[in-house]
Amino acid sequence: MEHQSNQPSAVTFSRTFDAPRELVFQMWTAPEHFASWWGPQGFSLQVAKMEVQPGGTFLGSQSSPDGNHVMWGKFVYQEVAAPAKLVFVQSFSDEHGHTIRAPFSANWPLEIRNEITLEEKEGKTTMTLQGGPINASAEEQAAYDGMAPMLQQGLDGTFDQLAAYLDSQK
């Protein structure tokens, strides 16, 4: 399916968790919680820095299950409105936080803007993530569009981990 649009595409993903909004927000903002669920299934996350405030930075490394592959990434927080909203720009980086190209694609966008909103109803929280490239070239946008189905699948696995971790916190 070809993407025919003048508007850059974005991935939108929603999931409802059986947990209060404040707790789900903490999962995104407390290093000890975030490290327990974020990333591809089977990978481990080491948090080097996590300053959840506008202009603050998250820096962390993910290790593959066999330990042979390590990828660094960063978030630069744009908006933090506890416990309802979190906006950040996500990039691959080196261990010093310098933005680099993704290890899997020379055309992957350097920056992805993610907006997380949390709405609570009757003790359950619906999280909506909307993300898409910013400042992307046509080639970068095309790479993102082509990977969108795999990205959705990866997010599904990541948020399965969040659901299991939230259950373990009860």
From TrEMBL:
It comes from the Bacteria. InterPro entries: ASHA1/2-like_C, START-like_dom_sf. SUPFAM superfamilies: Bet v1-like. Coiled coil: none annotated. Residues 18-166 form the Activator of Hsp90 ATPase homologue 1/2-like C-terminal domain. Belongs to the AHA1 family. This is SRPBCC domain-containing protein. The lineage of its organism: Bacteria, Bacillati, Bacillota, Bacilli, Bacillales.
